[in-house]
Amino acid sequence: MLHNDLTSKILEAAFEVSNELGAGFLESVYEKALVVALSQKGIPVRTQVRLKVKFRDVIVGEFCADMLVAEKVIVELKSVRAVLPEHKAQVINYLKATEIEVGLLLNFGNSKLEYYRLHK
Q1: What CATH number should be reported for the domain holding residue 107?
Q2: What's the average model confidence in pLDDT over 43-48?
Q3: Across all residues in the chain, what is the average pLDDT?
Q4: Total structural domains within the chain
Q5: Residue 61's beta-bridge partner residues?
């Protein structure tokens, strides 16, 4: 799988955050904690990254990705009771709109971390 080592390290960090913080915080808390965990592993991460949406090679808009890890994986964070199809569609659309091929959807809203690895 493309970027398998990187996504494994991201998931390892996400499980650390989930195990240490538990459920019930706002998405922004998990975002900051995940940045700490990834940074401590030496993995570069940017948050609230503005990315352009292209249609037929023309920029038609932009969106804000929660995280871009190592410039290779978009990470979308949620803190909800249940992941809905539109949450997965959001990540897939982000991938379609960019040159990035792999995305992770992480939900910290339950006692057990829920995650999905998505691609174009």
Answers
A1: 3.90.320.10
A2: 98
A3: 95
A4: 1
A5: 53
pLDDT at 37 over 80: yes
- The range of the structural domain enclosing residue 72 comes to 4-119
pLDDT at residue number 55 = 84
User: From CA 105, how far away is CA 78, in angstroms rounded?
Assistant: 8
CB 32 within 8 A of CB 40: no
Query: Which own/partner pairs from 8-14 qualify as long-range (CB within 8 Å, at least 24 positions apart)?
Result: 9/38, 9/41, 9/43, 10/38, 10/43, 10/69, 10/73, 10/75, 10/104, 11/104, 11/115, 12/41, 13/37, 13/38, 13/41, 13/43, 14/104, 14/106, 14/108, 14/113, 14/115
The pTM of the whole model exceeds 0.90: yes
pLDDT tens per residue across span 81-101:
999 999 999 999 999 888 899
